[in-house]
Structure formats: C-alpha cells, structure tokens
Design goal:
By secondary structure, the chain is of the alpha/beta class. It is built from 22 helices and 21 strands.
C-alpha cells in the first residue's frame, strides 16, 4: 500500500485514523485471508480470515467476517482463476474455520465507517459477487458454496453468488440474513434480491427468513430453496468433491493446464496528481473537483492469431486496456471522493482500434480472447455504476470508434468539436466517430441492453437510423444528426461551453447527481443486476444514515453491547 494518507473510516471509540490509500493490486503472495488449491479441473478457495488483518485499525475480523481488504483478495482470485487457470472448470468456495463459513461484513467496521466508505464497500462487494456469477455464465467455471458452517448476512450473500449451495448437516449450522432483526439495516450485497429472483424462494417464506435472525437449516433450508442440499459431516468431503467433479464434467470451458496468462502486477505510476498506466493517463484538477482521463488507441496491429494474442499476455492491448481502466475506476472512486466529474478523451489511430476489434470477434471462441471480451464488458459495467458525472470530449485526434466509443456512450453527455481548433492546429483533421457492432451487443449493460439500445430506448426509428450509420466515419454534423452526441459546437463556443458545463456540475449536489444519473443510465427492463445496484443506490444511501441504524442508539452502534437499538417507530 502507498504511504499517502487520506481520511478513511473513523473507527468507533478510536478517533480519526489516517488510513493508507486503498490498493486494489494484489496477488497470491500477499493474501492474508484466502488460500487457493488446484486439483486438475477443480479449484478450492478457502476463506480463513486473519482477525488482525483489517484494512484499517480499530476492529477485529472475528468469525470469518470481512471488510474491503478481504473482498479485494476475493476479486483478485476470481480474475486469476479465469486468466491463469483455464483448466479450472469448477470452484469450491469453503471456509477454513470449523462451524463458521462466514459471518458477513464486519459490524464494527460498518458501525465506525463514514457513509461514503460503507457505500463504496458494498458496491465493490456487489461487483465481485457479480463477477463470480459471470464466471459461471460466460467462462464455464461453476462455483459451489460448500458451507461447512454457518453462513450469516454477507456470508450467505457470498454463497448466493455461487451456482450451487451445499450446507453441512451438523444440527447447528444455518443460513441467515439477520440484518433487519439484529442491525436495523438490509442485506447490502444482493441478498434479498437473489433469494427471490435467483433462488425463487416464495415471498412469504423470504419474509420469514429475512426476519428470523437465527435463520434455517436442514430440510427446511432445502425445501424452501435457500440451499440445494445438506450433507452429513461424515460424508462431507467425498460428496463435495463428487459435486465439483460432476460440475467440471459438464463445463464448456476450453482451456488447458499450462495455457494460462499470468496477471503480473499492473504497472502504474502516481506522480502528484497524475496517474499513468500503459494506454491510460489521468490528471486530477483538485480545485475544480475534476479528473481528465485520456485513453490511447493501440500503437501496433493485433497479433497474427489468438494463440499469439495469448502469448502476448498482459501486454495484449485489449487486456492491458481493461486492466488499466479497471484499476483507475476503483482507485478514483474509492480514494478520490471529492473528484466528482470525470472527463474522458481518447487519442490515437482509429484504424488500429478497429483492427483489434475485428480480431476480438474473429477469435471470440478462443478461451483467452473470450476472457478478454468478458473483462472489457465487466470494466465498462463498473463505469456504468460509478457515482460520478461522466463527460466525453470528442476532438481532432480522438479515437472514439468501436470499443473505445463505448466510453463515450457510457458517459452522461458527449461534446464534439465542429471542425478544428483554428488557433491551435488549423490543419488538423476534424474529429469523427464510428459505430460498429462492438457498440450493439458485445458489451451489454446490467439491463441486458447495449449502450446504443439504452440511449435510444423506446425510440426505435432513432435506433434504426443510428444502426444504419454503423461502419461510417461520422463528423460532428452527422454524429449530431444521428443522436450520438449531446452537442456539436465550433471552436468559438466549444471551450467556453465545456468550461461552463464542468463548473456547473462541480457546483451541484453530488448525492443528487448520483441519484439522477443512476436513474438515467439504466432504462428499460429490470434484471437481477439492475435491481441489486438500483436498490443499492437507494437503500444504502438511506438505510445506512437512519438513526434507527447508525444513530447513537441505533442497532449498528449497539450491536454486541447487550442492548437493542432504540427505534423511531414513525414509518413513512
């Protein structure tokens, strides 16, 4: 971790402690809470939380409870499983502790953390759970939750992200979501939604389950659909191994041992307010609460074939781009809370972007290229749910085509220069953009629609007109006519208009903008994913600041003291 300090959780009773900038780059040699074992096509992920290994001082991670640091390791495991171990077709998630799988998010951490920390923590945790589900759906890696002890709260929510949930039958281990009766809050990482939407538990039974702090076990848990099976302790290891082998036998995953791509540590330089990666640079303007992000196109043609792309490993441009953007998004939204506006630009050779895009389609059936495509998709989704204003600026030299155009389509507004900057480079080529098939389904949002479909939702004629322009270089007038930019302005007005827009956004209420943008970005059909994130935006920004939960007499503050929370009984 960096030595740079920021204000982070104020741990109850301990005063304000400066905490290190949160570092999302990690690796197996630095894990404190997980061990991973590989046995052919089956991997076993074992959670044994180091009680003294909290990300910040002031709480102990007892009973296999977790904080953001634990989840950062889990995210790294999920990523490495997909890229470094193509032979793995099923994954057993279990605990190294007897009788306790996981007690969920650490209550002392939640009670003592500022609101922004709690919400960022829950968002990243949700994305990690979604990544497990994505690995099952799109990488042929079936995750099995082997609950060798009680799974409570976020521990059960972790199990819910797995495809198969098995609970040990030892007359004591249960599954539960005790947040409402014990803490006066709601499950924060998709528990309520997945119980009814994914596991199809009847809503009356779900109501009983979510208000019974001790939860359920045995036949009731199986009958209601809370778990898929219970297994006695004396046959536990044999049965879990058998389920994992059977799942692996059904997998469509095509990679083999020895073909994996090592995710070496991502190269990143932070020099003052400038953050630099290969292909991505971000410069923070603290006075104006803004960061300017520039994404560079590739400088070389794609490799000859999919195997050559795999051989390039982390240097392969689409993978390098996904890794850099992923880390930058996480770094900015966790460590730079006051930077409310992200201005996104691109630069470089459009033709090379399109060449790489073509190969991503041509080689999509190769396990490695599939993983790269899926990673780009997940990274763009992370941008969609980031609580910041996103502005795309399209100028001469921009490379907003194909996959890189998704960055503009993900933005809340797009500003495009008509012509050139006459006083700077009158001989430059005016900016153009190009829609391709990459913008029309390859990288779906959480709602299942492409960003193009979301942009023109309910306006089928406009969508058809935009699709008709695919494959064509569109100048500012054509892009404006196609509805692909918010404003097209000449250089007399462009910089002044952009300045006014950015100053306006900096002056508005950040939390109001968060709610507004979350509503605008996800149109159309509801999915389990949009419900989880939509309700996260709503309930975490409300539930966590209610006196009933976090007030001096609230349930979160009194948890473990022997006193119950005192509730304001007026309900709206």
């Amino acid at each position: 971790m960096s030595d740079t300090t920021l204000e982070k959780p104020t741990v109850e009773g301990g005063g304000q402690e400066p905490a290190p900038v949160v570092e999302f780059r990690t690796g197996p040699d630095r894990y404190r809470h997980f061990t991973v074992e590989y046995d052919g096509d089956v991997a076993t992920v074992k959670l044994t939380v180091d009680e003294q290994g909290g990300l910040v001082p002031g709480y102990e991670l007892k009973m296999n409870s977790y904080d953001l640091g634990v989840d950062i390791e889990l995210y790294d495991i999920v990523q490495r499983m997909r890229f470094e171990h193509p032979e793995v077709k099923s994954v057993i998630m279990t605990s190294g502790n007897e009788k306790m799988f996981c007690a969920g998010a650490n209550i002392r951490m939640l009670a003592g953390s500022p609101h922004s920390w709690k919400v960022n923590f829950c968002k990243f945790t949700n994305e990690t759970r979604n990544g497990i589900e994505d690995a099952t759906a799109n990488s042929g890696q079936k995750w099995i939750a082997a609950l060798n002890g009680t799974a409570a709260g976020g521990g059960y929510e972790l199990a819910l992200a797995c495809d198969d949930i098995v609970l040990i039958d030892d007359n004591s281990s249960t599954v539960s979501l005790p947040e409402v009766p014990l803490l006066g809050v709601l499950p924060g990482t998709g528990g309520l939604t997945r119980v009814v939407d994914k596991r199809h538990v009847r809503k009356d039974r779900a109501d009983l389950f979510a208000t019974k702090s001790e939860g359920y076990r045995g036949d009731t848990a199986v009958d209601w659909g809370l778990v898929d099976a219970t297994i006695p302790r004396n046959s536990w290891d044999e049965e879990i191994t058998s389920r994992a082998r059977a799942a692996a036998a059904e997998s469509s995953r095509g990679g083999a041992a020895g073909e994996g791509v090592q995710l070496t540590e991502l190269a990143r330089t932070i020099d003052g307010d400038t953050i630099t990666y290969d292909h991505v640079t971000a410069t923070i303007d603290r006075a104006n609460r803004r960061v300017d992000i520039t994404v560079a196109a590739p400088t070389e043609a794609p490799p000859a074939d999919a195997e050559a792309a795999r051989a390039q490993g982390v240097a392969y441009y689409p993978l390098a781009l996904a890794r850099a953007l992923d880390d930058l998004i996480l770094h900015l939204r966790t460590n730079e809370l006051l930077i409310g506006t992200w201005v996104i630009r691109t630069t470089g050779d459009q033709a090379l972007v399109l060449e790489h895009d073509d190969r991503l389609v041509e080689w999509a059936d190769h396990w490695f290229v599939n993983e790269v495509n899926q990673y780009l998709k997940r990274t763009l989704k992370r941008l969609d749910v980031t609580s910041r204003t996103l502005i795309a600026v399209i100028e001469p030299g921009s490379a907003f085509v194909g996959t890189l155009l998704e960055l503009a389509l993900a933005a809340d507004r797009q500003y495009m220069l008509e012509g050139v900057y006459e006083d700077v480079d009158p001989d430059a080529d005016p900016a153009t953009i190009r829609l391709t098939d990459a913008n029309d389904g390859r990288y779906p949002m959480g709602n299942g629609l492409s960003r193009l479909e979301s942009r023109f939702f309910g306006r089928d004629e406009d969508l058809d007109a935009a699709r008709a322009a695919k494959g064509t270089d569109l100048d500012s007038a054509a892009a404006d006519q196609a509805g692909l930019v918010t404003m097209a302005l000449d250089d007399i007005d462009f910089e002044e208009e952009l300045r006014i827009v950015l100053e306006e956004r900096a002056a508005l209420s950040p939390d109001a903008l968060t709610g507004m943008e979350a509503n605008h970005r996800f149109v159309g059909p509801e999915t389990t994913e949009t419900k989880i994130f939509g309700r996260l935006t709503a309930w975490q920004n409300w539930i966590f600041i209610r006196p009933n939960a976090s007030g001096p007499d609230g349930a979160l503050r009194r948890y473990g003291s022997g006193q119950k929370g005192e509730y304001n009984l007026e309900r709206v």
